[in-house]
Amino acid sequence: MEYLENVRGYSDLTIKTYHEVLSEALDVIEILQEEQHLVFNLMPYRIKISQLSCKTISKKLSAIRSFAEYLNGQELKVVLSSDESVKVAKTLPKPVLHKHITEALSLAQPCEHLVVVMLYTLGLRISELSSLKLEDISSEWVRVLGKGNKHRDVPLLASTKELIDNYLSMNSPKIFLFEKNGERLSENSLRYIVTKVFKRVSLKVTPHQLRHSYATALLNSSAPIADVSELLGHSSMATTQIYTKLGSALKQQNYNKAHPLCGGGK
Fold first, then answer.
1. Interval 16-62: pLDDT, tens
2. Side-chain-facing half-sphere of 52: CA atoms under 13 Å
3. Would you call 243 a catalytic residue per the annotation?
4. What range does the domain containing 53 cover?
5. Residue 152 bears catalytic tag
6. What is the pLDDT of residue 229?
7. Among residues 46, 125, 184, 212, which one is catalytic?
8. Which of 22, 54, 121, 236 is deepest in the core (most CB within 10 A)?
9. How far from 16 is each of 11, 23, 112, CA to CA, in Å?
10. How many Å apart are CA 223 and CA 151, to the nearest integer?
11. Each residue of 229-263: b (16+ CB within 10 Å) or e?
């Protein structure tokens, strides 16, 4: 866990998830000592979690694989048995329509308003917003500390900067943009704010959906995928490409509605 925090730069929530998965798995996994290595037989654990969704099982197995890689890196040779991958259907992210976001913002309090706007106009992860420091905000850019302790610079809209300045005029944070009792506001607290804002307009929205909305809006406006990938802090453009599929799906829906031969035309 210290390695994940200090070397890999994982968020508190991710580290907690890894800890829970490994604690659960190591109580069940059969560990055998061979001449040159240890064998982790995952079959008992796979049977234990077999009723869960494919996506959940895949994430749990991924955590175990990461743990095995870590042990191998520490010169403790580990071989995984019954480690076949679980096929997970790729689902398209679900962005929030701009009109729904503006409707929710019209009913938000100043702090709530800023939280949603920061996520929507900067494409931040909730962990990145929680750890955003005042010193990393300039008049035109925000320096974001992302996964793996990697920094990236994201353009700051003038309207968003104005919201930040108004917020700071009413509050007095010392280090982080969002603070409570001298400590940075937790990811869960920020997540609750987003949930509360959209609940007022009868929508269930997560912070990550606002990040999806940011990416989708850029790509649908013909922003180069390489630029969007960099702005999102993705380690590979392959991760960003799912948004291009979403854009194509939306275009197909619009086409089906509009073209007379598709039954949607007048």
1. 999 999 999 999 888 888 888 888 988 888 888 888 888 888 889 99
2. 15
3. yes
4. 2-81
5. no
6. 81
7. 125
8. 121
9. 9, 11, 26
10. 21
11. bebbbbeeeeebeebbebbeeeeeeeeeeeeeeee
Q: What is the pTM of this model?
A: 0.63
Q: Tell me whether residue 255 is one of the annotated catalytic residues.
A: no
Q: Are strands 30-33 and 38-41 parallel, antiparallel or unpaired?
A: antiparallel
165 and 217 in a common domain: yes
Q: Which of 81, 108, 136 is the last residue of a domain?
A: 81
CA distances from 174 to 114, 120, 215, 253 (A): 17, 24, 31, 48
Strands 141-145 and 38-41 turn out to be unpaired
Residue 68, in any domain of the structure: yes
Annotation says 208 is catalytic: yes
Same domain for 149 and 181, yes or no, is yes
- 155 forms beta bridges with 141
Among residues 10, 211, 212, 214, the one annotated as catalytic is 211
Token digits for 237? 């453009």
Helix, strand, or coil (residue 72): helix
Picking from 126, 119, 112, 127, the residue whose alpha carbon sits closest to that of residue 197 is: 112
**Going along 43-140, which residue ranges are E strands?**
78-81
The C-alpha atoms of residue 96 and residue 186 are separated, in whole angstroms, by 23
Q: What's the structural domain count of the chain?
A: 2
Residue with tokens 């854009």: 247
Q: Whole-number mean pLDDT of the chain? A: 85
Among candidate residues 8, 147, 152, 196, the one labeled active-site is 147
* Cα–Cα dist 168/13, whole Å: 27
